[in-house]
Amino acid sequence: MTDTLDTTTTGNGILGTGIREGLLLKPVTYPWAMELYDQAVANTWFPNEVQLGEDLGDFERMSEDERHALTFLMSYFNPNELLVNKALAFGVYPYVNAAECHLYLAKQMWEEANHCMSFEYVLETFPIDREAAYNSHVEVASMAAKEEFEVRFIKRMTEQTLDISTTEGKQDFVRNLVAYNVILEGIWFYSGFMVALSFRQRNLLRNFGSLIDWIVRDESLHLKFGINLILTVLEENPDVATPEFADEIRGMILHAVEMEEAYNRDMLPHGILGLNADYINTYVRYLADRRLEELGFEPEYGVANPAKWMAAANDTLQLVNFFESINTSYEVNTRADS
């Protein structure tokens, strides 16, 4: 591992704002970032490769509550894929030195754009009221609350320049990573993916399910990159992970669970066949426990995974310790078929 960071412009750590640093790819300093970039390139796909029109018959046969749930997901996913790009562009990319990290972040930003266009494809294919779907993310209180939570962290990154030579600046960097990567991508998105894929479990919207599969595959890499980036910052900067800061991070995640539970009650106010808000919220609590454990915290809820068929998408990371800030296994499987 590299030495502890001591300035914002030297190449001694993963954090830095120097323009002349990070211009040479080899030798690679952080192999995990290079491996994730290679896997992301191998995973490249395009939305129109999926024949969504074949799902139109299923959509027409779905109940009003089922169509409401699908529209609700599109209302949230569509703008928030672009919100993630803002978090990356303003809150992560400018503060990272390593060329291999810049390569991966550039590919991730393209993937987020591709996901946005995927959800546009859904809105163009299914008879969904686009204006109503767009308006929901500001008009539905539970959905707007989630977005405002993320915006608060991103605004801090866009409206001021962090001094990442200070403990406070590095903590702000980690807060943003937790907000967009662990919470938005690692809990909220995965909760939505489970709902989206639940239709295929009932032999509905099978092509839509394939599209979601591809998005989940991308998001699993985003989660790995974000967790490894958090761990590397903590390992190189032991001043960051104070007990008070760790308590704050845990509190952020628990608050995120409460917001997601309210959102899911609005998405499924009456329930649909095989799925209701309580079921989804048990899954949310399971996800939160997984993310807490991956950061070295004790689980909060102690619930079993109610959607065992989503297990492969959930359990993608090595267990680490937020307090020790050491990752014992940065290596990832780079096979394109994994």
From TrEMBL:
Molecular function in Gene Ontology: metal ion binding; ribonucleoside-diphosphate reductase activity, thioredoxin disulfide as acceptor
Quick one: which residues bind Fe cation 2?
E112, E185, E219, H222
Cofactor(s) listed in the protein's UniProt record: Fe cation
Q: Which GO terms describe its biological process?
A: deoxyribonucleotide biosynthetic process
**Entry binding sites for Fe cation 1:** E81, E112, H115
Record organism: Serinicoccus hydrothermalis
Biological function = Provides the precursors necessary for DNA synthesis. Catalyzes the biosynthesis of deoxyribonucleotides from the corresponding ribonucleotides.
Q: Which reaction does it catalyse?
A: a 2'-deoxyribonucleoside 5'-diphosphate + [thioredoxin]-disulfide + H2O = a ribonucleoside 5'-diphosphate + [thioredoxin]-dithiol
The organism's place on the tree of life at top rank: Bacteria
Is Transmembrane among this UniProt entry's keywords? yes
Q: What is this protein called?
A: Ribonucleoside-diphosphate reductase subunit beta
Q: Name one Pfam family in it.
A: Ribonuc_red_sm
Q: Identify its protein family.
A: Belongs to the ribonucleoside diphosphate reductase small chain family.
PANTHER family recorded: RIBONUCLEOSIDE-DIPHOSPHATE REDUCTASE SMALL CHAIN, RIBONUCLEOSIDE-DIPHOSPHATE REDUCTASE SUBUNIT M2
Report TM segments. Answer: 177-199
InterPro entries (UniProt xref): Ferritin-like_SF (IPR009078), RNR-like (IPR012348), RNR_small (IPR033909), RNR_small_fam (IPR000358)
Q: How does it assemble?
A: Tetramer of two alpha and two beta subunits.
Keywords, in A-Z order? Deoxyribonucleotide synthesis, Iron, Membrane, Metal-binding, Oxidoreductase, Transmembrane, Transmembrane helix
Membrane found in the keyword field: yes
Q: Which residues form a coiled coil?
A: none
Q: What is its EC number?
A: 1.17.4.1
Give the cofactor note: Binds 2 iron ions per subunit.
Identify the NCBIfam families for this entry: PRK09614.1-5 (NF007186)
